[in-house]
Amino acid sequence: MIWTLALELAYWQQTAIKLVVVALVIPTAALILGYVFLMKMMSFMQSRLGPMEAGPYGTLQLLADGVKFLQKEDVFPRRADRYVFALAPVVVLVSTFLLYAVLPMGPDAVVSSLDAGLFFALAVASLSVIGVLMAGWGSANKYALMGGMRAAGQLIAYELPLVLAAIGVVIQAGTLDLNKIVLAQANGELFGWGAIGFPYILTQFLGFAIFLVAVQAELTQPPFDMPVAESEIVGGYQVEYTGFRFLFFFMAEFGTAFAFAGIASVLFLGGWYVPGLDPASGWFNLIGPFVMFIKIMAVSALIFWFRFTFPRLREDQLQKLAWKVLVPLALGNIVVTGVLKVLV
Amino acid sequence: MSDFLRSYLTVGFFAVLAVLMVALMLGAGAVLRPERPQRQKYVTYESGVDPVGDGWSQSTLRYYLFALLFVMFDVEAVFIFPWATRLEVYGVFGLVEMAIFIFILALGLFYAWRKRVLRWV
Known about the structure:
heterodimer, A: mainly alpha, B: mainly alpha, 3 helices, flat
């Protein structure tokens, strides 16, 4: 049986298989999101076709772009702080990779099921702020510095609603292990009716909404794209980068979008669980990745829909939204959830 | 080795893999890309004109204030996580404790609000 096979393998064999699979999944995920949403969905929303030349319906466009980036010269500005400048995109991309270490695709289909999985994911995600600041500072460019500062200010402001919105789910599930959060939803009951489990979006809808808005800001996507606003500061901290180092920022953005959509699916939509099967069944190692993929695409569609619909926020509006609306709402959500958890 | 340590070892391997993949991509680029040095290429970009002054300029103090606020709230989040996982065990006692904690914190946010720290001028 294919799903029990994983249990009979030695530790290093399991780990090697997982690492190879994830190493293939991450770039593919970034490519799929980029193609389906950034190219096709955006084009259709704007009444145009989008890329049609490379491959059938332009499916290979992003690969062609990647090959183009591969051939670009690696230009370091003379005044740049070389090491900081060179390392910044690496820090951003590695922090994105690490997000996938705890993302569960099935009961055993996870690289490492940490006890503090959610905490790890949120902590690792915030590392990218350091990379962005390094890029902004290391470039020794006025646009880059402004972009880096704006990005840092925005990322830390929206870090809080992101973390606080997730706490509501932690209170309900009573664990930080992402796989156990899925199980808690699968085994949950709605007023004694357990047929569809208990996806936390039903009680944590406010948390879900805050989480998605914060994710949007963490990705520095429109309407929160002040740090990279091409019409104001010509790409912000990315302005001096060429070739693959530039591509790393792009890959990190879409890789993070995929991973965060995955975490949102785990926290609020029931993760790899679908109603009708016993949550303990090994079948979920097989169908779990597909279920997760569908849920991730649905959440990503929402994220990108916002991206293509709303105009850019100003810096003051942006900070106001985070500190005066989202943080108090999230704190209130924690208190209400806690009270209901203890008293009901 | 205990399961706990082993799960973190896996994450360690994963981090190594991430660095390797990045190095591989940069290495492939180093083999394929051209290199034709020209003086003008390495001038800092400033909308097509020669750069004026230093790239490392001063920036507004607001960022610093928001960073301070962030540190306060992020440390708070670290305290809330363990509480949230054990709430069922602590019951009403834990609830009251955390309500006081969050109230003091909200008071801090309100103070910053009144002091117009949250206003972007």
